[in-house]
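2024-03-11 09:14:02 INFO worker-7 job=invfold-0412 stage=load source=structure_tokens
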């Protein structure tokens, strides 16, 4: 949660996706939600390594993560979301 007037983080409501993984996936999520310019601003404060393939991985995640996420979450019993993931993946393969 964020206070837009102060520009401050005010709370975290979901730790379900908290894992040690590729930081490019986190930045991709920000780019999906708020655009590349915002993601670039966040990266200015990132103290980890931004290697040559960082933005390539972000592009991959931005393209495929919505479909894969639907497949994963839908596989826990939500057939509608799973079907949306299959359809999204099929549409991507046609590009």
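2024-03-11 09:14:09 INFO worker-7 stage=emit residues=95
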């Amino acid at each position: 949660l964020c206070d837009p007037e102060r520009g401050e983080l005010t709370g975290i409501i979901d730790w379900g996706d908290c894992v040690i993984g590729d930081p490019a996936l986190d930045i991709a999520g920000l780019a999906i939600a708020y655009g590349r310019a915002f993601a670039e601003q966040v990266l200015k404060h990132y103290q980890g390594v931004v290697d040559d393939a960082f933005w390539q991985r972000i592009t991959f995640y931005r393209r495929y993560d919505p479909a894969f996420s639907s497949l994963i979450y839908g596989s826990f019993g939500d057939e509608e979301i799973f079907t949306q993931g299959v359809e999204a993946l099929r549409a991507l393969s046609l590009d």
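2024-03-11 09:14:09 INFO worker-7 stage=report msg="The first helix runs from residue 23 to 34."
2024-03-11 09:14:10 INFO worker-7 job finished
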